[in-house]
């Protein structure tokens, strides 16, 4: 799975299958502070991800 | 998961809505807040305090779509690599949506940009920036009936908690959806139409409507006590869903009592001897700071 983390501008390659919620926990990201996009569409925490997915994790919190 | 209103796929969980129902929910909530708390009269001349971030752009977008006389006011502190980027976003947005944008610069108003002020003085960035920004916001919003800010429910819950932790009842009393009314001479009515909207909802709306801005973080932000409170609240929210909403709901139910408690200790306002802005002292906080931190050759009599 290809993951872009917008806050740190990181590209992460990770073997993963499971829900968005689980992925965020694995990455140690507080789900209250992000939204997740797959194929230009917002997806919710219960959505199942596959290893072929490319996702974008967007920071919700303001930067001051 | 399906939308609670139709059989389409949900794009948001709390509340669980598809794209179309989320947009309707969001806009209704903002407009209902405006109506319920009497934030804006139909003919009001409105100025939106904008930074180029998602909150102020979303607010500007909704107000501009629903009211006639809407303009934007941006304070350019002079933070290279940060504010210049957000101002570009802002200019593009205002040009696209036909909104009049006024930009007021620290450089012109105080003789120096914030970057230089911080280089020359040992001072907390958010302290000087906050005092100077508030002064300019107040000064340049006087020709309008209301000034609207993009504070969302997360911002409000953080501010309430910070003021409680510091036991600052005076600041705590000013956190309602409307403040600084015309009854206080020298102030423009300040409104917060996104008061009951979470930061996550604002972000989702900005993504759906294509008005999302990139993640830009102020380089001075690490000094803010607010960030610690924000992170703790977000950690708590994950374990106890509804915490931030509960804090804001508590405040709404109790803020009149809080105001009543500090009524007798409220400061009597007069005009600053130097700049004429409202203050409780002979010289206002901003002018005192200007005299301390700006060298004499660049000091400007406002």
Number of domains of chain A: 1
CATH architectural category of chain A = Roll
CATH level-4 homologous superfamily of chain B: HUPs
CATH topology of chain B: Rossmann fold
User: What's the β-strand tally of chain B?
Assistant: 8
Provide structural commentary.
The complex is a heterodimer of chains A (64) and B (302). Chain A contains one helix and seven strands. With 64 residues, chain A is mainly beta. Chain A has a single domain, classed as Ubiquitin-like (UB roll) (Roll). Chain B is of the alpha/beta class and 302 residues long. Chain B has one domain: Rossmann fold, CATH 3.40.50.620. Chain B is built from twelve helices and eight strands. Chain B has helices spanning 19-36, 54-66, 83-96, 106-110, 114-120, 125-140, 153-165, 169-172, 199-208, 225-239, 243-262, 285-293; strands at 45-49, 69-76, 100-105, 146-148, 178-179, 189-191, 270-271, 278-279. A six-stranded mixed β-sheet of chain B has the order 3-2-1-4-6-5, sandwiched between helices. Chain B has a two-stranded antiparallel ribbon with strand order 7-8. In chain B, strand 1 (45-49), helix 2 (54-66) and strand 2 form a beta-alpha-beta unit. In chain B, helix 1 crosses helix 9 (199-208), helix 2 (54-66) packs across helix 9 and helix 7 packs across helix 10 (225-239). Chains A and B meet through strand 5 of A and helix 9 and helix 10 of B.
